[in-house]
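During the first year of the project, the team set up a workflow for recording each protein of interest as an amino acid sequence followed immediately by a discrete structure-token representation. This format lets reviewers and collaborators read both layers of information side by side without switching files. As required by the reporting guidelines, we include two representative entries from the current panel. The first entry is reproduced here exactly as it appears in our internal archive.
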Amino acid sequence: MTDCWVAPESLFDGQDIVYGQAVRIVDGRITEIAKTPDSAVRIKGCLTPGFVDLQVNGGGGVMLNTTPTRGGMADIAAAHRTFGTVAVMPTVITDHWAVLEQAADAAIAAKGDDGIIGLHIEGPHISVARRGTHNAIHVRPMDDRTLNAVAGLRRHDIAVMITVAPEATTHDQIVALAQMGAVVSIGHTNATCEDTEAAISAGASCATHLFNAMSPMVGRAPGAVGALINSHVWSGIICDGFHVDDRMIKLALRARPDDDLMFLVSDAMATVGGPTQFDLYAQNVHLEKGRLINAEGNLAGAHVTQAEGVARLVHEIDVSLAQALRMAITVPARIVGQANLAQMIGRPVRDVLVLLDDLRVAGTLGQTQSSKAAHDAAELHKPLYL
């Protein structure tokens, strides 16, 4: 049996940054957090649970829509793990009904697999006017096929987030989805403020990539954006410097009625940990100066990691590190009912990260603990990966 204490310079406990604390590691798992003992091995950096991402379309050269299988999900999760995201919700976007059903079957088969925490169904029940890169051919009103797919996932206790537009979904359908235990998220919508508020009253509890692909906020018509900002629903947001202006992110964070309603998503595509281009709907999507551009010349998802989003929140948006980590770990974990993902006790050391002063990921606690090279990299402020 191995048993040791490791003391970082600081530690994120799921809520705040704390100092003078160490973690006890027994046989590769953290069993205790306590005041630093004299015997502790000291390391540089901030110790934190790995990142959680509820909107991951692809990674490692794989898109879930084109590979809606258990293996495809595993490849996507593995790609994001190399950048510090240890728990992902693979995301299937608007497509033929068979693709959605295949993704649902894959999520059931992948239950308990490393890093897979559910399925995000983003479309096809959205607004054509606000479809973004989603294929208009497959956009359609909510139907029994999707309701049955969600019901099947929930019977297997699979966490589900489903993005819908209020105008493509009835009040009763939102009620039914919420009663199943799905997280109903408003997105890709041209709905009025009033229709958005009605969807929230029916049971929608989340918003998909706030500001993007939704009716904007103007003086006499708050739109979906205004309704969501004023509400108490959780709201995902992409922080890559392209999808949302930094000033708008600052505005939204200040304007929300409660703390910890905002959470970070990557909306990542196959290029994260993969080649610089891929096919979606049989058309090329390529990376151009940090942006992913489709055949129509529009943004098509994002080329960003949660680690990069956290760093931008702190360095560009002036968010505290504690809040940025809550947005990337604690809040998303809470949304899908897996609060343990924001805790260290009981977690394997491969699920815990060491962040350097500039917020790059130096490696996992397991790498830092077991490898002198990892320790030297932390000393020199050189990341092991990213």
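The second entry, processed by the same pipeline in the following quarter, appears below.
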Amino acid sequence: MKLHTIQALRAVAALLVLVYHTRAIEMDAIARKGLNEAPMLSTFVQNGFSGVDFFFVISGFIMVYVTGKVQPRLATAGAFLFARAARIYPLWWLFAAIMTAYFFLAYGGVPFGAETLEDGSRMMRENSALHLIYSYALLPQLTVPIHGVGWTLVHEMHFYIGFALLILLPRRFLPLGLAGWAAIILLGTLTGLQQPTATDYISLLLHPLSLEFLGGCGAALLICSGRRFKPMTVLVVGLIAFVAALYLQPYPTDFTLGWGRVLFFGIPSILIVYGAAALEAEDRVRVPRSFVVLGDWSYALYLGHTLVLSGLRRIFDALAARLQGTFLEDVFTIGAPGILDNLLFYIVGAVGSIVFAGLVFRLFEKPAMTLTGRLRRDLFEDTNAQLKPAPIKAAIW
């Protein structure tokens, strides 16, 4: 059974991040030109990074859902981990390679952490190479990966490895394992070891964002076991809380990068995912096919939209310069008086990002999934069937 609501929520999460970065690029373009026009969208969109919190909750939900029939065996855990890595790495490597090529062509090398500037050029070259290795492997490091949005994938791979270890437990002990994982995170905060960003293995292990993943796991356990309590009410409460947080949460600080995100966006996301999935399990909701398709494209949309938006901004600047002195100059000058330039940038940016994501999905991501799926079946023939979801039980609440 494919939960269409979950795919639709993946689409919503990707669109939130898309609009968030569109606004950020719009603000940067305005600042670079020395203009003072306010961005077209304000408070509501500046917290659009919360789409990432949605993604984390959904990831946790999917992990529990797709492992409903697993047996506590090492081969099963290996098959699960291979499947998740095969889903993440191929498309990530494509975009990481694009960004690597861009930095080498534009700047003669890749960026590296500011802490390396105190060393000589030899050390900078070594650290740049190490930065690439850590980026492609999605390992924690002091700076963001070569493609900035990849920091979330570092958390994702951490989730997958941790959950693969929990697969080694009998299924009835999974809730206890998840609770123990949450307790470790809470203990890290109480002992002062938790950091705003995950720059090493300890801070990654103890980062509060893992609680969003664990919350998604908990929601799936409830749904699959039939424990569904007033899903429509839960969904509405989650939506109200999420929208309120979009308006009211302060701009990111050390607190909001960690626990603030969990409280303001993680908990509402858990409620939304639980309510929406429970409604579908009870056949009380229908999702437009367009959102399901966009959900399928969401990973490509997440990784590709910043490239499209950055390229579009340069195209707008070039057109504005070429059309200087005509009435069309202001149309392509982001930050010019009026709303037309801003509206055009948002619309073209959104459409272009979605079309690009669809092409990447069909031409690269889907063939890669087919290829890695065959390889997984060859490598883990005996455990492949155990990675299929278990039937969702009838409601008992």
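For the second entry, the following points were noted during internal review. The CA atoms of residues 30 and 335 lie 5 Å apart. Residues 340-379 form the longest helix (40 residues). Both points are flagged for discussion at the upcoming steering committee meeting.
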